Amino acid sequence: MSTIPGEFIGKWELDRHENSEALFAALGVPESLREKMASVKNTVDIREDDAVITIREGGLPGQPDRVQIFRLGEEREIESMFGKRLSVVTLEDGKLVRRNANPDEDIVRGYRQVIDGELVMTATVVKTGVTANAFYKKID
User: Fold this and answer.
1) Is residue 91 assigned to a domain?
2) pLDDT by residue (tens digit) across 2-16?
3) Is residue 25 part of a domain?
4) Under 8 Å CB-to-CB from 16, ≥6 apart: which residues?
5) Is the full-model pTM beyond 0.90?
6) Domain that holds residue 124
7) Domain at 51, CATH number
8) How many domains does the chain have?
9) What is the distance between the terminal CA atoms of the chain, rounded to a whole angstrom?
10) Considering the domain boundaries, does residue 36 fall inside one?
């Protein structure tokens, strides 16, 4: 049984992004690393098997992939760029929305949605409201 729309399923490659350097700056990432992060053509692979969703994100060269495994609506430790956090992922208006189980620990709020055949990942820094979008093209 599928719990997410089939359009999410597949492998995606970063095509372009908007405002990512400002987002990284708002998070305190050093400028030299911001440039490196902004130049990476990472991939995202989204799969679902028996209502268990797996999202594998390729990171910086030489770094291990981040793997997130969860069921919608259930609290799980989910890996992010800030380490593992107890989170809940829900499907809201066609968006995969991730929230920290403890809102006081929120650093970045984010969601994924498919618009016109592109996977769009939106992240907002909670303290500053700085938002960035990453746009992915399906490659598989």
Assistant:
1) yes
2) 589 999 999 999 999
3) yes
4) 134, 135
5) no
6) 6-138
7) 2.40.128.20
8) 1
9) 21
10) yes
Express as a percent the part of the chain with pLDDT over 70: 96
Domain-located, residue 75: yes
Q: Of 83, 52, 81, 78, nearest to 67 (Cα)?
A: 78
Tell me if 130 sits within 8 A of 19, measured CB to CB: yes
Query: Which pLDDT band holds residue 81 (cuts at 50, 70, 90)?
Result: low
Which residues make Cβ contacts (< 8 Å) with residue 21, sequence separation at least 6? 34, 35, 38
Spatial strand order of the sheet with 43-49 comes to 66-70, 52-57, 43-49, 10-18, 131-138, 118-125, 108-115, 95-100, 83-92, 75-80
* pLDDT at res. 1: 47
CA-nearest of 92, 86, 98, 91 to 126 is 98
Looking at residues 75-91, what average pLDDT do you find? 82
* Contact between residue 3 and residue 73 where contact means Cβ atoms under 8 Å apart: no
Q: Which pLDDT value is given to residue 60?
A: 67
* Rounded Cα gap, residues 126 and 106, in angstroms: 7
Tell me the residue type at 32. S
